[in-house]
Specification:
Layout: H1 24-31, H2 33-43, H3 48-69, E1 81-85, H4 91-104, E2 113-116, H5 118-121, H6 129-140, E3 144-148, H7 163-176, E4 182-187, H8 189-198, H9 200-205, E5 208-212, H10 217-230, E6 234-235, H11 237-251, H12 259-280, H13 287-291, E7 292-293, H14 295-299
Parallel strand pairs: 1-4, 1-5, 2-3, 3-4, 6-7
Length: 314
């Protein structure tokens, strides 16, 4: 016989007890994080240290979310980041994937990326900087703000520069609204180090520092193949060998920008290929001819002339 004085916990609105365990594997599977990491692998060749750091960050956030479910923590983790490395090493692409990852894990509301430079934040006269910076922050809220070459915000040699005003606004928002915005500062490693030394407020708010290494020669050749494949082109065997020579030489010359320099070189090679076909074709041109980059299309580059004062991509 039931106790007539017993009460129904659900009927009385008693709180549901917290779970005592979490299935991390199921959380990982259901969150879509694996899809983001796989996309990063497809988009970017190499960068193993960077990809490992992204995986580690994803694991940290998954565990943090699990701890919240179990009532072990309530504070939003600091997710602001610094990406350091030379141009063309994939920093913007990784920032895009990071925004997607943070959205899937519930750390940002929208998952979009707003990419800016100093000119988007700093005005040229009194009263211009604050509204510019606040407008950018408004657009970025709920997502990720990516500030490329962030060290240009600070110009101590110019006492009339308004970058400090933008910095102060950024620091305030990074601290007070870190649950609704993630800021990623990017640039050359040595310049970023000096920037952080001059602006300790930024260093104290950056939790994750990720360094992007330069690509190896074979990785750049693989990147070139991916770029051409996306546009339905391919290299002849001889052109592939010449492109490897180009990469080795181009790396030693000024303004080398990793994958960006390779993209520019391929754009010029396609231009030469088009002119070659236009000048030599006497009749119908085959699909293979229209799709093949030949050695001469690459060997015509000024890079092979040995001059250092070259224009990017020529």
């Amino acid at each position: 016989m039931l106790n007539p004085h017993a009460t129904d916990a659900k009927a009385e609105g008693a709180p549901v007890p917290r779970p005592t365990s979490v299935d991390l594997a199921a959380d990982f599977r259901d969150s879509g994080v694996a899809e983001v990491l796989a996309q990063l692998d497809r988009e970017l060749v190499g960068l193993k240290p960077v990809k490992q750091r992204i995986r580690e960050t994803a694991a940290l956030l998954l565990v943090d979310r699990a701890r919240q479910k179990l009532g072990l923590t309530q504070d939003t983790p600091t997710l602001h980041m610094s990406f350091t490395g030379n141009p063309g090493t994939g920093k913007t692409t990784v920032a895009l994937r990071m925004a997607d990852l943070l959205y899937r894990l519930g750390y940002v509301r929208k998952g979009h990326l707003v990419s800016v430079t100093r000119d988007d934040l700093v005005g040229q006269y009194i009263g211009h900087t604050a509204p510019k910076t606040k407008e950018v922050l408004k657009k970025a809220m709920g997502g990720v703000l990516f500030i490329d070459e962030a060290y240009y915000l600070y110009r101590p040699d110019n006492e009339r520069d308004y970058g400090q005003e933008a910095i102060e606004i950024l620091l305030q928002v990074m601290e007070n609204q870190r649950d609704d915005l993630v800021v990623i500062l990017a640039g050359y490693a040595d310049r970023m180090d000096r920037f952080f030394a001059s602006n300790p407020g930024f260093r104290s708010r950056i939790a994750h520092h990720i360094d992007f290494p330069d690509y190896e020669d074979e990785e750049l050749l693989s990147i070139a193949g991916k770029m051409l494949d996306q546009q339905s082109y391919h290299l002849s065997d001889e052109a592939r060998s010449v492109l490897m020579d180009y990469i080795r030489l181009r790396r030693t010359q000024p303004h080398f920008a990793n994958a960006r320099s390779i993209r520019n070189a391929l754009d010029r090679a396609r231009l030469r290929q088009a002119n070659r076909l236009f000048d030599t074709a006497k009749g119908p041109v085959s699909v293979d001819a229209l799709s093949t980059i030949e050695a001469e299309d690459i060997r015509a580059s000024r890079v092979f002339a040995g001059g250092l004062n070259i224009v990017e991509g020529l």
